[in-house]
Structures are given as structure tokens and as C-alpha cells.
Predict the 3D structure of the following.
Amino acid sequence: MNSPPEPTKLAQLQARFAAVLRGPGHDGAMADPALVAGIVDDGLAPAARLNLYRNNTRAMFVGALERSYPVIARRVGDGYFQRLAAEYRAAHPSRSCDLHWIGENFPAWLAVRLAGTEYAWLADLARLEWACEEVLVAADAPAIAIEALGGVAQEMLPEMRLRLQPALRCVNSAYPVWSVWRANQPDQPGDAIAADRGAEHVIVARADDRPVLHLRPEAEVRFVAALSSGAGLQQALENSCLPVEDLPQALAWLFQHGLVVALEAPAPGGEE
Amino acid sequence: MNRDVRAAGRGPVGPIPAVAGIGLRSAHHESLVRERPAVGWIEAHTENYFHDGGPQLLALERARALYPLSLHGVGLGLGSAAPIDREHLSRVKRAIDRFEPALVSEHACWGQSGGEHFNDLLPLPQTEEALRHLASRVREVQDVLGRQILIENLSSYLAFTSSQLTEWEFLSALVEESGCGLLLDVNNIFVNSVNLGLDPLQYIAGVPPAAVQEIHLAGHLRKQVGDRVLLIDDHGSTVCPEVWRLYETALRRFGPVPTLIEWDTDVPALEVLVAEAALADQYLERARELAA
């Protein structure tokens, strides 16, 4: 009902204006003549006025991306980060009225953009930083104690699902992302960590209103990831290759950190 | 749920008094609650409190328990030709239900085209077409929210040749057609007077007094562009003397109105904002005496 056959004058004007804002142009670039002709020229060129908006929207985008990915920005330096941000914006322009979410596709985009280069590992670092962003704004939920498991009948245990904190993310990486993240916090000197130092696997949770990064064994992180995607205990063990003898310790760790919010018996009627 | 926002103590819910308030910025979340400065109210950017949980929500909840609140949106882009983002609007509604603000505001601007959001406050031509469009959007939002909203005048770096109305005629007609109130940003009037050659006194004289329910004050930046100076509305410094004078004029016309000190770039210590608010309060006090 809101799509008339011809775009309205207002829609046309906004489409032209948008093309300028989107443009990779620099201050000397020629702006759309029809748009320029529609802007009052009182001695200061309309194109110069448009440039202010173009530069503003670009700065706004880059600034928001940098707030989501401060470690990457620090690690690669301002110039390279600006270039990456411009390319990323061309591929993934903002689709939300809320600036907070513009970095959502950055990890996946980086993975493709940097594949095969010496910076490929930055995509994993980006996944870790985005995990921190998500954890920071996820819902609050009260944790349950490990004693709750005692009330579950033995034969129900393999199918039992553990509902985990909304503020919890798992990042498995072949690179030392945890070490790089820690070394590049604002209060740290930013030591260079060699990317070939080895794999690190991280569970990101929230404590004291900040993201907290737990370095954990690979299989355990995969196990927690499986649980948080809804797998039952048995299924999560199989998916993650966590040795069954490590299960008690992995569960104890989750409960100790207040990361379990509910136990759910499998829904009758099988898989959801 | 020990941190359920709804479970918290609720601050005052009545109308915001005609005194000075300050914009709540995350840099001040802790100091505001600790120091409880004598400001009349606070204003928060609605979009910063869209989340499901976490420290940001908790901080506003704590501040809200101490001060009356205004929620100021920057994301709806009501003048965009594209349809309103209903998901965004429902999040605005959720924030309103959570925090019970006394005032809710947005801007006379557009922000998206062709599916891309520019996350900026972009200028509308002051045409009959834009007016009808914006008024219908404002009505749509007011219907969904079940309340009146205030619309803020924009700072702008350009004017369109197609404009048939002055800014103040446009705002007055918007009030008439949509039933919205106005959030008059006096700094934006001054910025536009320099950038676009408007007469700021005529602007203030042309706005319907009964509609003005809030005033914004902020600092701006002077930028040399070619051989001209343009004012950039960066909210990054103290209010300049010309804007204070204009504010005094505005208060003479509108009477004492809740007035906000906005500061978004290079946010200083809380005391600096509180001192600016105290200055605004002196103007408001004088306006009250004149009105008496």
C-alpha cells in the first residue's frame, strides 16, 4: 500500500541523496547534477555541503564498527581499519536504524576477505569480539545450582537439555585469539602475539557487567556450544568428542560459573 | 529475576518540570547515581536501551529511579520515503513500557533509502509533500505508541530549492496536522542561521508557543569550508554566548520550558554538564519571574 507506481519526489530526492552518501567519492568528486541543482547555492558549493553529510555518515559507520571491534582496530592500526571498514560498508551497508548492529556481518565478511592471507586469523578475532558485543546486551537470567541435576532420574540424563545463559557464546579458533584479545585491552601494552602460536578456545560469559573470556579445552568449548544450540547431554558429548570421563568436570564448571539457567526434559514426541 | 528492569524502584512519572536536565551518557552512568547531582531530569537516547538485558539497561534503571526521564530517539527517520521500520518502532515501545518516560521525542528528518540506513539525521525539503508525509508518519507512531511525541528541528548543512515553506512554517504545520509537540533545539536554530542564512529571531517568533514542550541546548564546532564558516552540530562543547542569548529570547516567548544540556562528543566530567544545566536554570528562573 506504500508503493505507488512512480516514486514520489521525496523518494527520488532521497534516492539521489543516498547515492552520494554511499559513494566512495572524495571531496573533489562530481556530485549528481540533478541533486546539486536542487540545493541552494549561496556561495558555498552544494557539492561541498553534500560532502559534509557523506563524510559524516562514513565516520558514523566506521566509528560504530570500531566500537564493536576495538581489538582489531588496535591490532591493525587506523589506516588499515578505515580501509577494511569502507570495503565492509560497500558489501554490508547498514540495514538497521540502530547503529549497534552494523558489525554483525563483519566476522563472516572478514573470513572471506582475508582468506589465504597472513591476516586470515583476524576473522576469528572478530568472532570473539562480536561474541563479547552480544554477551554484553543479552538478557539476564537467574542461574540454577548443580544440585538440580540430582533430581533428574538417571535414565533421563542422556536426553536432558541444559538451558544456558543467554549471555554466553563459544568461540573455537585455530589461532591464539584469547591471548591477542587480552594483550590488546586498553590497559595492556598491546604486545604482538604470533598468529601461529596455536589454537585457543574460548567461552565468553558476562560477569560484573563485563564480558569475561574463559580459555577452555577445545572439546569442552564444543560441548558447551552444542548444549547452547539445544542438544541433549548425550548428543552434545557425541558432537563435541568430549570424553565421557570429562563430563562431570565440564558440568561442574558450567554450574560454578552460573551459566546454567534451566534443566529441560526432552519434549515428548522427539526432536523439535 | 533479580535484575528485572520492571522490578526496580520507579522514579517520578509525572510531567517533567520546567527546569534544566542533562543528557545521560554511558560515561556518566556510575557518577550520576553516585553523586546524584541536583539536575531536574535526564534524557537518554532510546536506541541505547533496546537490549534484552545487561549493564546498559541496568544503568538506566538506576538513573530512572532517581530522575524523571525523557527518551529521545535518533533512529526512526520519520521522513524517509520508505516505510517505518516496525521492528524498530516496537523496540521503542518496549523501552517506553520499561522506563515510563515523561517525554518521548524524535527528529524531523529522514535516514534510509533503498534498504540502506545511514544512521544520521538527514534534512527534508520543506515541501507540502514532505510535510504530509512526515505528518502521516508522526501520526502512525503516535498511534502505535498511544501517546503524543515531540519532534525536534534539525541542524542542517544545506537547504533545498524545492522548499515552499520556511522551517518554522513547516514545524507549525506539522504540529497542526499531526498533533505532535515540539522539541525546539535552540542551538540547531543558531547553527542553521549561520549555515543557511535563516533569521533566528523570526524562527523563534514563528513557532507556535503552546507546542514547545522541551528545549535542547548544546555546543557546536566552527568549521572552515572554502571561504565560509559552517557550524557543525557536534554537541562537543559548552553552549556559546549567542545561543544563550537566543535561549533567553525563546524563554520570553515560550515561558519556562524543560531544557536539556546535550553533550555527545568528547564528553566531559559530569560536573561540567551539571554546571551548564545550572546556568540554564538561571535563565529559567528569570523567565519564571518575568512570567509571574
In short: The CA atoms of residues 43 and 70 of chain B lie 5 Å apart.
